[in-house]
Design brief:
The strands form 2 sheets. A 4-stranded antiparallel β-sheet has the order 2-5-1-6, with helices on one face. Strands 3-4 form a two-stranded antiparallel ribbon. With 113 residues, the protein is of the alpha+beta class. The model has no long low-confidence stretch (mean pLDDT 89). It has helices at 20-39, 86-93, and strands spanning 2-10, 43-49, 54-58, 62-66, 74-83, 104-109. The protein has 2 helices and 6 strands. The chain has one domain: Alpha-Beta Plaits, CATH 3.30.70.1060. A hairpin with a 3-residue loop joins strand 3 and strand 4 (62-66).
């Protein structure tokens, strides 16, 4: 088995306004989706959501605010899974709840150093 990083991207402007009940239902979809990987012993790390504020460090110790809000897509979070291949990991990503709100999932194999 190989390790893969699933990176969740979305356009914050497309996120719907939700009632507390709708938010709870959306979170249940996420927990069920991630729980499916855990049940198959393919979950490495459930991952986390990322805060919108951050900074970027560049050569010469130049620090700027980031991520850049002028870009349309922002990384919203990630999770780590195990799969036999990139194709299997991609199939796993096809049911990600972020797809229901116009987001996307980047699937990357982790290359150990």
């Amino acid at each position: 088995m190989k390790d893969f990083l699933l990176i969740f991207r979305n356009d914050p402007g497309l996120m719907p306004q939700e009632s507390p009940e709708e938010m709870q239902a959306r979170m249940k979809k996420w927990m069920d989706w991630i729980g499916n990987f855990a049940a198959q012993n393919k979950l490495i790390d459930r991952g986390n959501r990322l805060h919108t504020a951050g900074s970027v460090v560049k050569p010469g110790n130049i620090v700027t605010d980031g991520p850049y809000t002028e870009v349309k897509e922002l990384i919203g979070g990630y999770t780590l899974v195990k799969a036999e291949s990139l194709e299997e990991a991609t199939e796993m990503a096809k049911n990600c709840p972020i797809l229901l709100v116009g987001g996307n999932v980047e699937v990357r194999e982790i290359n150990p150093m």
